[in-house]
C-alpha cells in the first residue's frame, strides 16, 4: 500500500529546480510542485527561472488569463495572457514563457470545450425565461462563483466572463452549436 501511494505522489510532483542541475535540492519539499506528467515532460530540465513557482512567486489578484470567443461560423474559444499594471514584467515574461512551452492554450481550450458544452446546454432555460439579459446575468453570476471556488485565473472563470461579454452567445447563439 505504501509503495502505491508513493507512486501516485511521485507522478504528480515535479522538481522546480531540476534534479540534474540541483541534486542537493532534489529531496526538499519546497522544491517539489504539483504537476501532471505532460507538463513535467514538456518542462524537462529547463532552468527554473523560466517558469513561475507555484508557491514563491506572488501574483496580484488581477485577471491574467483571458478567454476570447470567435464565431467562424461556429463558436471557438481561445485563451491568452494579458499583463496589467499590477504585474511585474519579469513575472509576466515567465508566465508567458510557461504558457508557450507547456502549450497551455491548447490544453485550456480542450478543457474549456468540455465545460462549454454544459454551459450551452444550461443557457436555454434562462434564455427562455428572460432572453439575453438573463443569460448574461446568469453567466456573470457563474463567473463570480467560479472565481470564488477556483480563482480569478481559472480557465472556467475566464470562459464564463468571455461568454457573458459575447452578445451573440447571450442572444441564443448557444443553440444548435457543435462544440
Kindly summarize this structure in a few lines.
The chain is mainly alpha-helical and 179 residues long.
Structural category: mainly alpha
Helix content: 40-55%
Helical region count? 6
Gyration radius, in Å: 19 Å
Unreliable sequence segments: 1-10
Please describe the biggest sheet, giving its number of strands, its sense, and whether it closes into a barrel: 2 strands, antiparallel
Shape: elongated
Number of E-state strands: 4
The total domain count is 2
CA(first)-CA(last) distance: 41 Å
Query: Looking across the biggest beta sheet, what order are the strands in?
Result: 1-2
> What would the average pLDDT be, to the nearest integer?
82
Order of helices and strands: HEEHEEHHHH
Q: What is the strand content? A: 5-15%
How would you describe this protein?
By secondary structure, the protein is mainly alpha-helical. It has 2 domains: 2-50, no CATH class; 65-173, no CATH class. 53% of the residues lie in helices and 11% in strands. The protein has 6 helices and 4 strands, in the order αββαββαααα. It has helices at 2-12, 37-43, 89-101, 104-150, 155-164, 167-173; strands at 13-15, 32-34, 65-71, 75-81. A two-stranded antiparallel ribbon has the order 1-2. A two-stranded antiparallel ribbon has the order 3-4. Helix 4 packs across helix 5. The chain is elongated, with a radius of gyration of 19 Å. The termini are far apart. The model is unreliable at 1-10 (pLDDT under 50).
